[in-house]
Amino acid sequence: MKFKNILVLMIVFVLALSACAPKPAEVSDDLPAACQEDAFGCAVIPAGETIKIGMGAPMLGDYSMFGIDISQAVALALEHDDGFEGWTYELIAEDTGGAPEGGAAVANKMVTDPTVAAIAGHIFSGSTDAAMPIYEKAGLPMMSPSATNPDLTTKGSTVFNRLAFTDAAQGAAAADLLFNALGFTKIAVMHDGGTYGQGLADVVKAAFEEMGGEVVGYEAVTPGEADYVAPLSAVAAGEPEAVYFGGYAAEGIVMMNQWSQAGLDGVLFFGCDGTFGVEFTDKTGANGEGAIAASLVPPDSEEKAAFDAAYAAKFPTKAGELSAFTWSSYDTGGVLIAAIESVAFVEDGKLFIPRGALVEAVRNSDYVGLTGLIKCDAIGECNASGPAFYQVVDGEWVPLAAAEE
Amino acid sequence: MKTSLTKGLRSGIVFGIVFIFLMLIGFINVGADMVGDISSASAASGAGGRLPVGDLLIVIAVFGVFCGIAARSKSEEVQWWSALLGGLTAGITAGLLMGVAIWLVGSLSLDGVDFRTYLPSLNPASIQYLTFYSYPQSAGLTYLMYMAIFSVAGAALAWLLSFRDWLAKSWNSCKTGLGGWFEKKDVSRIFSNQWLMIVVFLAAGILLYFLPLAWGSYWNYIMGTVAIYILLGLGLNIIVGYSGQLVLGYVAFFATGAYTFALLTAPTPHGIEMNLWLAVGLSILVSTLTGLLLGLPILNLRGDYLAIVTLGFGEIVRILIRSDLLTSLTNGPKGVTSVGQPNLFGSPFSDVNFMHLLMLLVLIGLFIAKRLKDSNTGRAWIAIREDQTVAQATGINTFKHKILALLLGAAFAGLAGALFASRNQFTGPEDFTLMVSVNVLCIVIVGGMGSLPGVVLGAFVLKGIPELLREMADYRLLVFGALLVVMMIVRPEGLWPARRVRFKRSHADPDRQDAVEVEV
Amino acid sequence: MASGYPLPQQKSKLLLHKGWGSEVTSPSFHVYRSEIILMINKLKNQRLTLGLILRLLLGLAVVIYLGWRIYQTAFGEGTYGPDTWMRFLITGLVIGGMYALIAIGYTLVYGILFMINFAHGEVMMLGTFAGYFVLEAFAAIPAPTVANPDLNFLNAQPVIALVLTFLVGAGFSALMGYMLEKIAYRPLRGAPRLIPLISAIGASIFLQNAAQLLFGPQRRQYLNPDFLWRGTGWMILVGGKEVMLTYTGVFSFVLSILLMIGLFIMVKKTKLGKSMRAVAENKQAAALMGIDVDSVISKTFIISGILAGAAGVMWGLHNGLFNHFVGFLPGIKAFTAAVLGGIGNIPGAMMGGMLLGLLESIGPALLGIDFQLKDVIAFTILILVLIFRPSGLLGEALSEEKV
After folding, report:
1. What is the pLDDT of residue C226?
2. Which of B101, B167, B420, C387 has the fewest Cβ atoms within 10 Å of its own Cβ atom?
């Protein structure tokens, strides 16, 4: 009877796989007391293994510049550290594709690894939103250098913290710049439908209308397409003076290259931290002149210069070229290391990191990094330095001087 | 002798090009890494971060052996010197191609040309490794020599083995597959003993119960994915395997099941948070209704049209879920978070319990599928699959049966979707792309169309094995694609094909009408 | 031929062989008249089944909904001006031309082998890559003149460069199509339909990932010659406002039309075209007539590869950014277009491609819905067309026996 065959087959397979599967860490009853009392247990790192910091970032595909840049900076931070009592740190950056689904998948994988202590991420707001409840259940603390959506810290999560400014600040600053500094009264707002993009677009729309301006067009584009002439033309029909775009450089580039075709000649393209970077200027060339975006460059200091040199020596791009978050990523690494080293202890030749204690330690961080003092408030906002706006002049991003006024 | 030469030449060119391709994608370095891991006799990388060259030589040697084997002219008996000559030709051709390529790349790299803008895998470090950290010319010659020598060796090996017919026999037994093994006399005797089978069942049950406990959560996660895909495969097997309708939009049912479950149990968009088991039931129902909605208008379409229409339907569902239009219902591209977790009388399921639940559901699904196949409905489906017109002529209501197949397949997908959403604690529109449909279709066909053990095997192979090969993670899909093509050419009936009921006339007296053997 | 008008059943069989030019003679008025008589008879005898009623209701609902939506957009407030419609139209035509070229490739292969060549989108992608490398190579060759010491070959001889780019792009795609057929499809020649489909899917996945591993996952940008730079074009006045006709857009559209005309002539007039039609009609009979079936099939793949490669280069020139994934979505859409027009039917594929491009562009605006939903429109139209006309808009090139 075939049914038995199926069963036997399953058994054979499962036996084979369990033979090949790596043996999980010994689940012994003699865990240290601190671990048994901790609500989430401990991260157990045997001798010879590394303390892992996880990250969910878009490492491949259209948005890979963010993932590559941020993971490189965090990896550099982990490398510069000497380790803790003989254990070194390692970054595990897994690809999320820039989508919430990828964020959830990476989170589900990270929580199954007992050597992952903390998460430097995730990078995109959408994938952070999806991953948060999963990490919350497992007690893995998060420190994101770039997830800027304002709602992320309003959900009452105890594990999520971020170093980046919120989009509430960015959107309000952008609307203020558009209305007051640049004097536009009619703008159009576009977004890519994601948590980050649409969140930002909505903030700008509301703020602009509150100031008395008029939003003549509000369109969504589908990410990943090659032709946005249709939605851009629809927006152009309203004759806006500027177009605000909440989204990432991949879409921004396509839009800028089709600007004239859509009838938007002479209309300003106002982007966000997602559209910043050398990729944008490279791929738009002359079409991108005058576009505005936001970035987060810390003030000059000795440490910053040293970091810039180290980054340029190790990687083919410079800090701040691929994305706006290189420096805050470096600080993320530092903050997480500091928090881990404050609660970790060694017993029986193994390293134990009580998870609940680590979550609290990250929330109570008090660290001075490249971007300034990093101290988290009750909901997880750790660094309130707002975005700075930049404009493309002659193919380079230069600060949008207050001389614009 | 001429055929040996031409065959050698052809196989040499092919292997040379394949090697150059693998070199350009960086696979050779990964191969050398793997060799290093296996042998682990080679101490850690030598001074200055240099990788052990011996591993690379082993890779080339193995490549050469295969080249030699491929050069063997399979058609007629060849003299030993002819076979060796073929091997030599193959080796020299391939070696020449490889050597020239390495020499070119190596010299250009030494001159300072950076390939990385166009070919990112050719970073200077790996080029140096490929040229054995020496001069490109000598490296090229080394390649030529090694390929020539080992191709000859390979050809000799193949020639020697051709005298043994155990090779042919084992190949034939491979062809009949695992199913054939089970039918052999002594093996089937085990299966016919009832008491022994009960013991086997019990042992299997206990094993299945304890395995999730021993695995660790990572393997639970992977096996959970495999289990969900088994359920999906079972559903699609009913539609494609039993009733022969090519449906490329299966992911639509998966999506509706997952989203129904997520929206009913997650706090955010609607805050309904109903009882989980009820939600599972409802998601199966909604999926089935979707199947009905899809099936009714298009059921009379011919095979390929059905395929593209269902493909379109799958895409429509995904785009609608993520659109602004339905954002208030589905939360758009942000997806639904904190999807409900199963619990029994208040205590939540751990991942081990979830795995047990999945196993139980898979076993129930297998049972249902098996009973369906052996029923009148199953036979009707197979008749429709073989020849719809004839089936109709024998009185089968094709419309009813085709719709039934679609509904049952959708129901399986709905169940799988609910479990998927619950396990991931999140669901979003990009989880339901066309590739999911394609993956499930591949599971069904690679495993063996219409065969239940085939579906299980297919799910393990296509979903479980890639996790074992994590080092080769970048090359996973490449190997997957190549594997599909090779599988279809070499073994199109699948890994574990379904056995068909066949009538054989008794050879003793071909005229006797009642002398039929039924092979089940 | 009998005198008077022929028996209805004979002539209608001829009419079923629409497309691909396999008609023995072009239908005359009498034939159409007898067809109409047949149809009226069929309607008279049609039983009022539930399916028919449902279909009529559905058709009515669709027509009413579309009409209402279009009325709202055309005459309601907040409508677009004629310049915006012109922009939609232009974009639609350009994209439609590219889809049509790829769709012809699908249809050619289907007509001959009855298989869906899933890897055709990847063949187009490889053409895009090939064209990219040629342009980069040309741009790297310096050709300084007195006036412009920084000039490179690409801008010094743009026409030659472009011609060579297209030749190499189309040629590489043709080669890939040929190899694809030889490696992945020829061994499966007699197998049931699903097997070559899976093989095609495998080949598609393999080619996509091979391109990704070889060239990296990042997006690359086409280096157009200066006179054909993206975003530049003629400005025409429509309704008082300026609308841009991009150079690349016009170029792509004109080239698509030329290639389609060329293909049509080839299929109708040349010997190869005749052999292709014969093999599509009946392989065994063609073989008996002395046609080398294998060679004709290879040549079909080569031709479809040429068209896809040309479409790929056009795509790169017009849209600029591409990566290894660029062939996936256009491949699916082109296949949809081919089915929409009637698979196996070359004019059908051309029409389907243009129609799909226009639908994508104008459809959302016309119906007043989000641009995100343009694929939904395309697929819904496909489903509706297939419900009411199961063999596609222009019918298919298969006779009753083959079904």
Report:
1. 83
2. B167
Domain that holds residue C215: 85-388
Average pLDDT over every residue of B364-371? 92
- Tell me whether residues B427 and A133 touch, CB distance under 8 A: no
Give C-chain residues touching B120 at CB under 8 angstroms.
Answer: 215-216
Cβ–Cβ gap C231/A229 under 8 Å: no
B-chain residues near C195 (CB < 8 A): 445, 488, 492
Q: Which residue has the tokens 């700008």?
A: A204
The pLDDT value recorded for residue A70 is: 93
| Domain stops at, among B370, B405, B432 | B432
Average pLDDT over residues C219-223: 89
Q: Are C117 and C105 in contact (CB under 8 A)?
A: yes
Q: What pTM, to 2 d.p., does this model score?
A: 0.86
CA A238 to the chain's CA centroid: 34
> C354-391 burial, b if ≥16 CB within 10 A, otherwise e?
bbbbbbbbbbbbbbebbbbbbbbbbbbbbbebbbeeeb
Average pLDDT over residues B342-351: 76
| B354/B422 same-domain check | yes
Q: Which residue of chain C has the CA closest to A282?
A: C221
> Could you tell me the pLDDT band of residue A187, with boundaries at 50, 70 and 90?
very high
Q: Whole-angstrom Cα distance, residue C279 to residue C287?
A: 8
**Measured distance CA(A50)–CA(A73) in Å, rounded:** 18
Distance from CA of A154 to the nearest CA of B (A): 13
Closest by CA position to C16, among listed C279, C340, C281: C281
Shortest Cα–Cα distance, B142 to chain C (Å)? 25
Q: How far is CA B497 from CA B50, B134, B438, B493, C156, in A?
A: 48, 52, 20, 6, 62
* pLDDT, tens only, A275-309: 998 889 988 888 889 999 998 888 888 888 999 99
Number of domains in chain B: 2
Q: How many CA atoms lie within 13 A of B289 on its CB side?
A: 9
Place of tokens 């090694």: B146
CB contact under 8 A, A130 and B178: no
The chains found to touch A (3+ Cβ pairs under 8 angstroms) are: B, C
Do C372 and A221 make contact, defined as CB atoms within 8 angstroms?
yes
Cis peptide before C318 (omega within 30 of 0): no
Q: Measured between CB atoms, which of C84, C233, C372 is closest to A234?
A: C84
Q: Is it the case that residue A315 has pLDDT exceeding 80?
A: yes
Q: Is the pLDDT of residue A28 over 60?
A: no
For the domain that residue C272 is a member of, what is the CATH number? 1.10.3470
Contact B335 A101 (CB under 8 A): yes
Q: B351 is in which domain, residue-wise?
A: 218-432
How near does any CA of chain B get to the CA of C143, in Å?
21
B155 and B77 belong to one structural domain: yes
**How many Å apart are CA B290 and CA B296, to the nearest integer?**
10
